Structure of TonB-dependent receptor:
Amino acid sequence: MLAVTRNRLTLAVAAALISTALPVLAQDGPQAPSQPPAPSAPAARQDPVELDKLVVTGTRVQGRSPTQSLSPVDVFRPADLEKQASADFTDQLANIAPSFNTQRFPIADGTAFVRPANLRNLPPDQTLVLINGKRRHRSALVNLQVEPFGTVNQGSQAVDYSLIPSAAIQRVEVLRDGSSAQYGSDAIAGVINVLLNDYDDGVRIDGQYGSTYEGDGDKWRSSVNFGTPLSDGGFFNMTFEYFDSDHTSRGIPRADAAQVGAFVGSNLVPFEGLGQRWGDPDGEGLRTFFNAEYPLNDAVSLYGFGSYADTEYESSFFYRTPVGVPGVGPRGTLFVDSDGDGAADAVEQSIVDNIRAQGLNPADFLTADATSPSGFIALNPIYTLFPGGYTPTFGATIEDYEGVFGAKGETGAGLRWDVSLRQGENQMVYTMTNSINPSLGRLSPTRFKPGNLTQLERGANADFVYPWQNNVFATPVNVAFGAEWREETYKIAAGDPASWANGPTGVLFGIGSDGFQGDSPEATGNFSQYSRGAYIDVETDVVERWTVGVAGRYEDSSAFDSTFDWKASTRFAFTDAFAMRATVNTGFRTPTPGQLNTLDVTTTADSSGALVPLGTFPVNSPAAIALGAQPLNAEESFAYSAGMVWTPTDAFSMTLDYYNIEVDDRIALQTITIEPGSPEQQALIDAGVPGAELLGQVSYFVNGFDSTVQGVDLVATYRSDFGAWGSGVFDFRHSYNKQEVDKVATVPGTGAPVIDAERVADLENQLPNNRSVLTFDWRSPWNMNFTARANYYDSWEDFTFGEKGEFGSEWLFDLAVTFSLYQDKLHITVGGNNIFDNYPDKETNSTLNFLGAQYPLSSPFGFNGGEWYVKASYEF
């Protein structure tokens, strides 16, 4: 499938290159000799100074710089993102912003493809993501991570950063401050605002190829960005980006896989004898963005921007052991021994009778055995397909689009206005190969489409800004106000029948596609909720050196109580070079329809390495209600920060900010172990839950705990002129973040904690407390640029399967050299990430070692080792 898509995407990119390049080349030809040479838009894009002058995030006052803002704002240039080995914006931003972290979780369902990311160690959906100042829609994926895949992001549903191509970005602004009063739900940790290219001339074509030092994980990325004028003062800018990344493998053979390989031959064991693969997935896709503005007159403009992405990924699941290997217990999907005598004769007679009563052949579901009283044993007849065992391959096709269209302008009285409509949709179609529905016996297919998830969002905004002239304050009072309506719809479509069917032997072997059970018709539906909000945001200089801002927002949700949130900010400049700033705010996040209605049955491992069916059910489902689930409430926060700004010269600036964020009623997954014959199992059976007898664990969402995150952020930048040796920029950023769980809710009637001690330990210790990024960017006068970066990751801990792992700190170093040729139009970059090939400490958990993981899955910088790349860019 990936190969077919690769050809289609390559043709699409080639067509885009031809269709966009020809008009520009024609402008440079004899037909238009009087036109002046087009300015090099990409060269302007890389200017290290101009892009840092003004910010638009966190303030609605025009002309604020990062050091003048009331809240801390980081500004990152596209060159910072693009001079990296990864083609994923998630990795690119995490590599340069120490307050932003991401991890790589293989064998973790959709989380292996849509990677969660944390700002200030808070979950992904507590950071609001904007594109050109407008809310970005979420992914359809709800993170249902359980051990051993880390639980810091468990339960979140957030934006898929990987669908944003770096070639489309003009700059990224990261507001490190709670801003729900200004922007609405989700802005508890902060706001990430991606500003798209608005160049109206020029074309830039990029091609990049790289690989790991181990020789796997090959990455190819190609893009084209072009701009053209629209009317007088308007523009249309378009970006196409294609990527293709191969998988990596850093595991060792599982203990049981090695034993099977020694008996049947390692060539019959999946993944060349490993059993399962720990590493990055295979990925391929096309990502596009456009940005446009069309002036109707001097006072009114129409604008629009949007995106489309089509990507595919493949990864593996846990290894399933085969039948007939001495000393290795076979996977229960192939063989069941209910009474320990080597055959399931106590159970299978009724199964055989039931199969015959349906007019079916028992030999299609059980294996004949003359020694058994029924003539059959509980051995799945499809076992002969897997002499070395099987490992399900899990994949996803992600199709995503968004469109935002509006009008903006300014009246003669100075009132700026902006009205817009938006719609975005993210659809995930899952696939499974090399698996079976064990309840269907030899009639089972080995390929499935377990389901289709869709997140659809619509919104309407009306925003106004008026500079109220007065004789009271030192500057006009900037009064911003507006209203927003938004709707979220979560759709679950059924998988193919074989992926969820409960066949004749389901009570023995399990039902549905093994590894990831498909969604049945009973689980499907469209689930919606909407909200309406209004805000006011006032900011002014009370006196020449004292700036004050106050914001308030009222929001009403169809599914939750209404809320009012506020924010107060101040900044006082003691001198032209030194200022203090502080903020205090409240925030909120409403649970999404996906969190309220997701239904998922997958497979996890227990502390012995055995595979356990895990069912996650909607909070209002019969299964969850039978186990005591209660309706969810919105998460709420209270935060404050205080900091200093020091700019002694035009060449040097430093900011230092302390923050503290308290979040109550945080959403968590409560997981209950279902023992055979237990009251919990009987409650599920009484509720009519399909396959209740086979579920080993059941989860549902609860308001599980309260937490506090506090920390310090330091940003220092120095621009140096080396005279005849060119110029350089030194950029140092450090982020300290520490999370503590203040209170854990208890299960009604039992008093047991909703989240266990291992989850608490992961929340407090799994992400590094300290991270630093030091970057030096040197521009020589000899058509050569040099970028060096050092990334520091503090030590961290991981609590999994009852064992605590401790992993030491690490420094990673990146290097890139760019040569500019042909009148500064051709740029060749040779670079590497983690050039000294550093790895995290080895995994010490006995269960994970048995499963073949030699490096910690929770590593904040992954475990692929060093990577190199070569990149070529051409501008015309």
Notes: The longest strand covers residues 697-721. The chain is about 10% helix and 45% strand.
